[in-house]
């Protein structure tokens, strides 16, 4: 009886070990096998904005070139100035089949609240471009030039302006412009580009900033009038629109457009994405996207991207404190 009991115990233990080993091997994946499953691509803002446009273009290039062997599901998970979308990515720690694109809110949202994550928590793939902005008014506005805008704003004392995200690059840009020119702003944040534009054209906002790629069609149609470009050089498509530097406003920040994975993913997953995105940025389709959307090509990979995020976060924090936003 004792022998039978001992054999039964050994058999049970053996089954347990085999089951555990089987479960481990089934849930693990080697570098050689990656990637092999459907990818979930989170866009932390609504449709139509710069983050959305870039993410969908990257997915298109990846699929057109056959760089990813399985399906890619793209989902807009907007809310809380990016807190919802990147919070979702944070919840997928260790899962290399989730990915997202960055914007300025990726750095500024944790500075003004506690969403449960900071840029440090994620796995950094790379910076692929930076994005500058246009200050615009309704095309029907009597304001024709940047000087008209400054006079209007100073006469009124405080103007109602909007942008994407709560304490984001859009807010920083308009705060710096207002401080330089001597007026105040009431800033209204939006999660979707369409809502932002509708608010301007309906008269709810007196001005707004947005990336050229998101509004150039409305500018060319006359629905919006550009007054100032925040980049260092004038846009070729809008040669009559002055830059901030021309008006004495120096060091206006740009929007960082990069790619991140969840925390704690295997190194081989990050390495695969770095190698793949280095192929993507060399493509003619990517260069056309940069040109059409007036993005600046700016590439940093892995640890260099991490260092850039640290420096940029420190710069944003300093500016926001100076503006009294933190």
From TrEMBL:
Keyword tRNA-binding carried by entry: no
- The answer to whether UniProt assigns keyword Signal to this entry is yes
Q: Which residues form the signal peptide?
A: 1-22
Which CDD domains does this chain map to? PBP2_Bug_TTT
Write the record's keywords in alphabetical order, separated by commas. Answer: Signal
InterPro entries in alphabetical order:
BUG, Bug_dom1
**The family this protein is said to belong to:** Belongs to the UPF0065 (bug) family.
Q: What is this protein called?
A: Transporter
């Amino acid at each position: 009886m004792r022998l039978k009991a001992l054999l039964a115990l050994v058999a049970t233990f053996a089954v347990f070990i085999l089951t555990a080993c089987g479960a481990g091997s089934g849930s693990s994946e080697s570098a050689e096998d990656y990637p092999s499953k459907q990818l979930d691509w989170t866009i932390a803002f609504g449709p139509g904005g710069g983050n959305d446009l870039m993410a969908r273009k990257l997915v298109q290039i990846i699929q057109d070139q056959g760089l990813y062997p399985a399906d890619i599901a793209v989902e807009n998970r907007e809310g809380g100035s990016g807190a919802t979308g990147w919070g979702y990515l944070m919840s997928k720690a260790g899962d290399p089949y989730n990915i997202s694109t960055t914007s300025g809110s990726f750095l500024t949202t944790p500075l003004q609240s506690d969403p449960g994550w900071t840029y440090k928590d994620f796995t950094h793939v790379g910076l692929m471009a930076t994005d500058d902005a246009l200050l615009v008014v309704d095309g029907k506005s009597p304001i024709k030039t940047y000087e008209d805008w400054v006079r209007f704003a100073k006469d009124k004392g405080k103007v109602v302006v909007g942008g994407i995200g709560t304490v984001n690059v859009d807010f920083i840009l308009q705060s710096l412009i207002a401080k330089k020119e001597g007026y105040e702003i009431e800033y209204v944040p939006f999660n979707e580009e369409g809502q932002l534009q509708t608010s301007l054209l309906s008269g709810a906002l007196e001005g707004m900033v947005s990336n050229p790629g998101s509004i150039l069609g409305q500018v060319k149609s006359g629905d919006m009038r550009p007054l100032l470009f925040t980049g260092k050089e004038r846009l070729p498509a809008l040669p009559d629109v002055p830059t901030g530097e021309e008006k004495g406003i120096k060091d206006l920040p740009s929007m960082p457009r990069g790619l991140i994975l969840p925390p704690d993913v295997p190194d081989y997953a990050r390495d695969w994405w770095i190698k793949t995105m280095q192929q993507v940025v060399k493509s003619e389709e990517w260069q056309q996207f940069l040109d059409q959307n007036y993005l600046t090509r700016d590439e940093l990979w892995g640890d260099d991207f991490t260092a850039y995020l640290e420096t940029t976060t420190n710069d944003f924090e300093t500016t926001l404190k100076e503006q009294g936003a933190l």
